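User: Structure please.
Assistant: Input sequence and predicted structure:
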Amino acid sequence: MERKVPIWEKANLTIEEAAAYFGIGTNKLRTMTDGENCPFVLWVGSKRLIKRRKFEKFLEEQYSI
């Protein structure tokens, strides 16, 4: 039986999970993570994951995105 890990316990989120968790659209997240030096994206092959804690910290320091 597969155990489903709650989003708030995951270290890395898919674009769709991050969009739901943070209330930001998937297109905006993709645009934000397109840069090579993005500190809160983790590439697994061609799959893009959001480093949840780093992204939370990033958002706390922003006025707007």
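The beta strands are 12-14, 41-44, 47-51.
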